[in-house]
Amino acid sequence: MAFALTFTEPWIIGLFIPLLLLLFLMLAIRFVRFKDKKTQEEYEKTKSERARGRVFVGILRALAILCLLVAIAGPFAVQQVVTPGDQTVTVLADISKSFEIFDTSVAPRLKDRIDKYFPTQIRYVATDETSAIGDGVLANIKGNDNILLVSDGNNNYGRNLDDIIYYASTLNSTVNAIKMSPVKNDVSIQVLGPRKTVSDVENSFTVQVDNPSNLQYHLVVDVDGKRVVEKTTTEEIIPFSSKFTEGVHKITASVNVNDHFKQNNIFYKTIEVLDKPNILFISVKESPMLKILNELYNVEKKQMLPDSLDKYHAVILNDMPGLINSDVDLLSEFVIDGNGLIVLGGETSYNFGDYEDTLLETLLPVNIGTGGRKEGDINTVLCIDISGSTGKAFSQSGAKKVDVEKAQALSILKDFKPTDNVGVLAFNVNAFLLSGVSPLESKYQEVANKILTLQDGGGTVISTALKSAAEILIGAEGTKNIVVISDGKTKHLQETFRTAEQLADFGIRIYTVGIGKDTHVRNLEEIARLGRGNYFEPDQSQRLRILFGRPPETEEGKPMQYYPIVPVDNAHFITKDLDINASIGGYNQVVPKSAAQHLVSTIDGSPVVVVWRFGLGKVVTIATDDGSKYAGPLLRPQNSQLISRSINWAVGDLARRSVYFVDAKDTYVDKPIEITVKSQSMPSDPKIELSKIDKDLYSGVFHPTNAGFIDILGTTIAVNYNSEYADVGINPLLEEAVKSTGGQMLNPDEVEKIVELIKVNSRRIKTDNVFYRWLFILAALVLFLIDVCVRRFNENRKLK
User: Fold this and answer.
1) Domains delineated in the chain
2) Per-residue pLDDT tens for 600-645?
């Protein structure tokens, strides 16, 4: 940022005006009266000369007063100073069991060699079968220091290593890591897939094999004793699928290979299979959607609601006109009790079905009709991160992250209507206002030019940007939005979360946009969630135009004939990793309520899927039809997950109606698990001690001791080898994590390069407030001395 003075007490400068008037009066008033006529005549002769002298003296004294007031007001500038920094080095060494496949002598050798250049100490952060690497890093970072990590980066205990290394970056600690190659061969195996599912549905699983040495191994996968996979390969990902009947099923996967650890060559997994949920489908017409639903659920079709809904997990209303109050009361009780409701649109529902101002509308997450948005009632502040971390390289082309942010900011500005009120600010530890909230059409080019001249530097405090943006939005009429473009790395993270939540309570929605693979996504997702907005990947930022109601470009004079639909919230169960490629021919006009979540929209911003919780249950609005006329593409295999996920989310926990059920999960021998049991009487099992936590609800902690399938409390769980052996080889995320601190992955033999890098990384850029009171006090003193000299010169001249 350019050099600019700021004042701690700027109001003091305003005192210059009254003091200037007082000085003028003192110079203008004639205090001396002469009784002697001759003296009076002499005084009149020199009157013009004295007037010129008073003007000159007045100017000098006015400038001196101004300088003193400016000094009292506390002038300062935010400046960055480069300091040599702390050149001591801490080597954090991993000597855990899983690290045995690497050369464990590297860390002490490095310590001895680097100690010749800098004071160096070695600390051990992972031992035996406990890799608490994140805790080790946290315990050793001091801020403005250098950490050299000799580890595989696989953390099985304590705080997440990625989070701790990110925290180190906020303290200006640089973490470098050593590139390690295995000196011993090892292969580990895991099976990934659902823990719970429903009967007669195809389920996908993945055998994941960590194979850093690219060994050939023999893989065998059995489901309930029946072989489903057998092959010899070097692959690391092997998919398979299977259907199950109701009950608990067992999967065993093993590799036969000559490697270092044998305990991680076999993996156990259990699948709890429940009967398909019972779905009541209310429709007066035949529906093409039933073909899909019958494959996934136990569906019963009726033309009207029955007297009791006790046997159903969810109800689907298909294009039904307004219901009578007794039917709505029945549905309300059904949902409040923890069940699901899905309401499909069509030609006789929502705005075509007299839903407006009815009891049914109170049950839905939407109001009926269009939003009635007026031109210019969108108020948005765009916040651009210009901290030092954004000055790092974005790609091998040499572009910096801040350059990517500028491009994104300009792209987002183009997505607003000219009549939308938009403000822009840049931020690091402070916020710098580039433009207040006003119609974009009158200032786009000016704002764009300011964005292009932004320079990176300083730390990051996102909460400062949020508070400054909120101050600009307070009092604005219409919607209030904040869009933050950042890498998500910020100091005072919890304060940022609290600020986002508080602003949401004041009706300000917060949207966050990442800037590539180095983005700390979890931070930005949580800020957006607490701010009741959405997080967008860089290539999804154009979806903001949908949320803010900007229609797509069409041929002039021609209305849109079809409406592509896109997810606008990628963090929800229904839309996470959902790839939709569909267009609909029509939709109902609805507006999401303030407490609802808007998940899917047409490309012109009209809501299609909106959800919310109602009591203990869930309600889904799908504002298009069942595929009979408008939404046929949603029934295609690649798009039908939107329907099935919506129903599954509404159904929720299938076991909630059971008299007896056990909620447990698979684990490792070193990972105790909590087991919850619903029972009308106290259950017992010698393997676990239970205590009552609620009516008919009991809980206890199970401490496994051996690997294999364990029968407990009437169910079966899988216990696997110690989690220390689950991940072998270098953690693929380690390099990205250390780069976030400005560090690198270094070759252990390149000691000179390591030393030079430590020297460079030790240089710290300190951002501080530099006060300039002395400069203005000195100026006032100089002016005072000039005043004294001028008056003394005039007196001496008169005497002569």
Assistant:
1) 6-81+771-799 (no CATH), 85-182+729-762 (3.40.50.410), 278-370+561-653 (3.40.50.880), 378-547 (3.40.50.410), 656-717 (no CATH)
2) 988 777 899 999 999 999 999 999 999 999 999 999 988 899 999 9
